[in-house]
Amino acid sequence: MKSALAFAAALISTPVAACEIELILAMDVSRSVMNAEYDLQMEGLANAFRDDVVLDLIESAGGIMATVTQWSGVGDQAQTVPWRWLESRASTLSFADEITNQRRSYFGAYTATGNALMHAAAISATNPTNCTRKVIDVSGDGRGNRGIDPKTASNQLVAQGYTINALAILGAKPRPLDFYAREVIGGPGAFVEAADGFNAYAEAIQRKILRELSPAFVMLNETTRAIE
User: Fold this and answer.
1) Is 95 helix (H, G, I), strand (E, B) or coil?
2) pLDDT on residue 190
3) Three-state SS for 76?
4) pTM recorded for the entire structure
């Protein structure tokens, strides 16, 4: 029985040769994010991967590689859900459960968005599968205030073939939406999605993932920057 369970687990987590999308989900856990707001982010992200449309898109794509990171200050980044090969409802729902069950890694540090991007690229190098599209999906509720210049990091990664999308959680001043649109996103089809506060995060992250899993729709909206 144990060997059968181990074999089933290997089927869920082991990638195959063809991969359309590599998706790195980088979540802001800086000092401005209260524990209740952290919970809203993680449960919203998990539920996005439980959505029937998202599940169908992943299956129709033939599978994707996905991972989750948490980021905050200059030296505060951690891959909290390892690379997972999602190709079926079972594997994607298991990934959603891992998102729900992860622990918060940081509590009181600053916001080093550029370092978060470079950390995502370092994680990308550990992906065991070569995917056609490499997408960094970064969420945050404020502007970067420490570390590597985010625009410099973004330009460097875009030159290496990455697409960087963002989800700006509104409420802080100056507005994080403008920061993410001008300093963070880049690459083919790059866009910013906006959440009107943490209570709206779940709907916003679902919209964002749907756009990322639908290449034709993303390319159609390639110039969308959501800065109005």
Assistant:
1) helix
2) 94
3) coil
4) 0.86
